[in-house]
Amino acid sequence: MALVEAIAGRDRAASLAQSIGIQSWSAEHQSEQFKLSAKHLFTAVANRLSFWSHEDIGIPINPGVDEIALSLVADTYSRTFRSKAFSLSPSDGPITTKRGLVILPDRVQGAGKAVDRTVKLRSDLPPVSSLDVTLQEIEQLYGSGSAAFIALQLEYSRQ
């Protein structure tokens, strides 16, 4: 948001922040909050080595999908070292998102390789809240260490 503010001005940054669910921002960076520890490394290694429990996560997309929420959820699941996210669509045709981005889905629902788990995007939430919900889901699925490791990677202070 600080970058948007520097390029487009305070009003544009405030408008964008409100639309994606960010309450406040600053150009200040709290680097001390985001230190990689042995515990984080252990979580990453343990998740990577637990290959028998790795999952393909499917995220259904349709025309008008919020591409910011989609990218936050897909990226978050794919950072676990236990799962990889794929977009799912009823067909292999292009999907136009809420803001006009065109996405070619990774997989067609019901055709080809199935996913292990489906995660639905929450259209009732702003994108940043979708990130918080996803971190909570990952905490329930893979443990608090995985959620903390992902927040660290994203340099995201959990709400």
Average residue pLDDT = 91
- Class derived from helix and strand content: alpha/beta
Radius of gyration equals 17 Å
Order of helices and strands: HHHEHEEEEEHH
The percentage of residues in β strands lies in 5-15%
- The number of helices is 6
Taking the alpha carbons of the first and last residues, their distance comes to 17 Å
Overall structural domain count: 2
- CATH structural fold name of the largest domain: Rossmann fold
Shape: flat
Biggest sheet: strands side by side, in what order?
5-2-1-6
Oligomer: single chain
CATH class of the largest domain: Alpha Beta
Largest β sheet strand count, sense and barrel closure = 4 strands, parallel
Number of strands: 6
The CATH homologous superfamily of the largest domain is termed: Class I glutamine amidotransferase (GATase) domain
Low-pLDDT residue spans? none
Question: How would you describe the overall organization of this protein?
Answer:
The structure is a single chain. The protein is an alpha/beta fold. The chain folds into 2 domains: 32 residues, no CATH class; 121 residues, Rossmann fold. 43% of the residues lie in helices and 13% in strands. It is built from 6 helices and 6 strands. Strands 5-2-1-6 form a 4-stranded parallel beta sheet. The protein has a two-stranded antiparallel ribbon with strand order 3-4. The longest helix is centred in the C-terminal third of the chain and has 16 residues.
Topology at a glance:
Layout: H1 2-8, H2 10-20, H3 38-49, E1 55-60, H4 67-78, E2 83-89, E3 95-96, E4 102-103, E5 107-108, E6 117-118, H5 127-142, H6 144-154
Parallel strand pairs: 1-2, 1-6, 2-5
Antiparallel strand pairs: 3-4
Helix pairs in contact: 1-2, 3-6, 4-5, 5-6
